[in-house]
């Protein structure tokens, strides 16, 4: 699949895919529709070639590659349960809105985020993710 070159004003997206084995794959792209199709057709990441996608759980828009990549790394540290809670909280709170240029009827955040810290009020509760909790 030829890489689509980002432009300075083009947003980046973090996406979460639920795989057929109930695991969650997290990735970043500038074109979610095209990237998801690649995963479904077995031409995406090795992970989704071995564990085919079942459905797209969430898509979050970021202003640039750096903030999307940083957020992807943070989300990849979570358990599958935490990722599902994160996706569920986004949709329950209408934090993610339809983005017709990229997807329909999947979901993306209505305003681009600049970092995962903007999403922290909706992050799953976990002592490992929330330094205010006592780990005793």
TrEMBL record:
Membrane-spanning residues: none
What PROSITE patterns does this protein's entry cite?
A: GIY_YIG (PS50164)
Q: What name does this protein carry?
A: GIY-YIG domain-containing protein
Entries under SUPFAM superfamilies matching the protein:
GIY-YIG endonuclease
Biological classification of the source: Bacteria, Pseudomonadati, Pseudomonadota, Betaproteobacteria, Neisseriales
Query: In which family does this protein belong, per the annotation?
Result: Belongs to the UPF0213 family.
A Pfam family matched by this chain, by name? GIY-YIG
Q: Which residues form the signal peptide?
A: none
Q: Which organism is it from?
A: Iodobacter fluviatilis
All copies of domain GIY-YIG, residue ranges: 10-85
């Amino acid at each position: 699949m030829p890489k689509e070159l980002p432009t300075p004003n083009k947003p980046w997206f973090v996406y979460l895919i639920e795989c057929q084995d109930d695991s969650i794959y997290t990735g970043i792209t500038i074109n979610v529709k095209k990237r998801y199709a690649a995963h479904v057709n077995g031409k995406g990441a090795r992970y989704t070639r071995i564990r085919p996608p079942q459905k797209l759980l969430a898509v979050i828009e970021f202003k640039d590659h750096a903030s999307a990549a940083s957020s992807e790394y943070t989300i990849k540290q979570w358990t599958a349960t935490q990722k599902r809670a994160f996706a569920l909280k986004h949709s329950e709170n209408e934090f993610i809105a339809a983005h017709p240029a990229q997807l329909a009827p999947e979901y993306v955040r209505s305003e681009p985020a600049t970092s995962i810290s903007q999403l922290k009020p909706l992050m799953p509760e976990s002592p490992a993710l929330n330094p205010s909790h006592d780990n005793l």
